[in-house]
Structure formats: C-alpha cells, structure tokens
Specification:
By secondary structure, the chain is mainly α. It has 9 helices and no strands.
Length: 245
Amino acid sequence: MEPDPVPLPLSAFQPARDPYQVLGVASSASAAEIKAAYRALVKQHHPDAGGGDDTILALNAAWEVLGDGERRRRYDGHRGRGAVAASAASSAAAASGTGRGVRRAASRRGGQDDGLLLAWLQQVYAPIDRLLGQVINPFPAQLRELAADPYDDRLMDVFCGFLAQSQAKIEKVEALFGSLPCPASAKGFGLSLYHCLSQVKDALQELERYTMGYVDGYLHDGREMLREAKQRRSLLKQERRRLEL
C-alpha cells in the first residue's frame, strides 16, 4: 500500500499565476461563474481547436485551485496575506534606494522555485507514477488470460475486477494531480503527465465498453492507448532525472 503524500505548508499551494486572472473572473465570482468561464476557455483554447498546450495547462492549474471549495478558500487567504506582504516589501525596497534587497529576493525566489519543484516531483509525480505503473504494467498479462476465452464468465469477471481496481487507482491519480499546481519550471513535464493520465483513463473506458459488448474495436483502441501511455511514462521517467539535476 502506497504511503499518503506528506502535506505541504500552505505557501506551497500558491500557483504560479493568479487563477482568477487566468480564468478572467473576479475574486468574488460564484462557483457557477468560475465553472462556466473554465469550460468556455477550455473549449476556445483546446489543442484540437488550434489552441496551445501552455494555455490549457494554465487553465487546468487555475481550475484545480478555484474548482475546489476548500482549496479556493486556502488560496484566497494566502492571496490576501501575500498582497499585504508584497506591498510592505515594495515600500521597503523603494526606501532603501539600493538593489541589494531585490537581488536577495530574486535569489530566494530561485531557491523557493527549486524547492517547490522537488516537492512536486516527490509528492505528486512520484506517487502518480507508481499508481500508473500498477495499471499499465499488469495489463498485458490480464489481457492474455482473458484472450484464452473472452466468453468465459470467470475470466471476464477477473478482467472486470482488474478494470475496477485500475479505475480506483486513476481516481487517486486525479486527486494527486490536482493537489498541488505544477511549478512553472516544469510546465511541459506536467502537461505530458496530464496527457499520460488522460490516455490511461480513456483506455480504461474503451476496455470497459469492450466488456459490455465484445466489440473488438474498443479492445484494440484501449490496448493502443495503454501502449502509448507506457511509452510516455518511460519518457517522463527520463525527463524527471533531467529536472532533478
């Protein structure tokens, strides 16, 4: 059983960009207004409609914060305290008449960014990778067992049990992915991880459709999606080593 992620301090939940600005809504917007703005922007900027991956990543990060009531309350509280602190820091820097404070602040931000990246890799990516592996790696053996006789009720029950367990793992993965925004320095990595998760989720849906009607097309599509997800997961593991250098 995988250990639960260690909670981060509240300051770690500060996203790289103000989610209210990303979604184009006021901080007083209702949950329904935020949801409507998010849906409209995702539809407008989806890659299939000619949008960019960076924009979708930013929209998803904003929704992860504002779409959850508890996370939004935490962010609002932190945002208010951050605005007061930023104002005080700006006044102090202007009064000093030197750039030393600014340079020190930039250095601290660089260290904080590195710390956030390491924390995100350890507490978000690492458990997600383990859970994805628990879905992707056993699939070929599960499929071989079912292939012996797909119409055997016992074999199909075993395969359906595997799909149900896999779906439960993907729900955990989605919760982990939304638990902490991906640092700006790893936005490409975060987007690739999101695509890997989406491929596995879609594959499970296709495989479940196959179990309902034995349509070979669903089985083929699900198998290919998991194969691609396996390749993407392998590339992510290589990229993680580069990020940690």
